[in-house]
């Protein structure tokens, strides 16, 4: 219940940025919003909330199973698959959205929510480990935003990027995630300046720690490192490193 309430608060915050520049927005049922990462967590709950308001939600999912479930459950949602790490797939997503939008209509908002968690001490990780997180959390945000930007400009809409408190403050045992979220906030700050002449606003939502489906259990994390890392490397960090694991599953 606590987790559900916490996620609901994030969804409400995203809604506020999307629809309340100066009070209630007229014609809310004629607005179109794109949300990424709708398979679960924040993205799915935001899709549900916007659907209740009658907003047309382009719900971008990684899995076809999620598309089918959203299509059956929500009457105003327009689900489709889009892998944010694949530029060609994003281009297909742009074509799909443009096909579904009414003539001369743009996107009132884009919520870059898709993300993954990456943890471990920097010395324990490889370039591939960092790129796996950056590809989704940072490069995916940039690619989706840039490719859909002309549709956002058309509606003088807004970009809402789901960052993290770890994009403002560092944390031990989370270097890939921290780097990706610092990057998201930096990209948002730069884009905000560039979009002012177009009447487009750019926002960051920075939630704290929530144990959504992205977070693996401590035992899964330990098994991964124990199977892939040199035992001497792990032992040099001592038993204290278990405290860092416990933070990520608290």
TrEMBL record:
One of its GO terms (molecular function) is oxidoreductase activity. It comes from the Eukaryota. GO terms for biological process: steroid metabolic process. Pfam families: adh_short (PF00106). The keyword Oxidoreductase applies. InterPro entries: NAD(P)-bd_dom_sf (IPR036291), Sc_DH/Rdtase_CS (IPR020904), SDR_fam (IPR002347). PROSITE patterns: ADH_SHORT. The keyword Ribosomal protein does not apply. PANTHER family: GH26015P, SHORT-CHAIN DEHYDROGENASE/REDUCTASE FAMILY 9C. Belongs to the short-chain dehydrogenases/reductases (SDR) family. This is Uncharacterized protein.
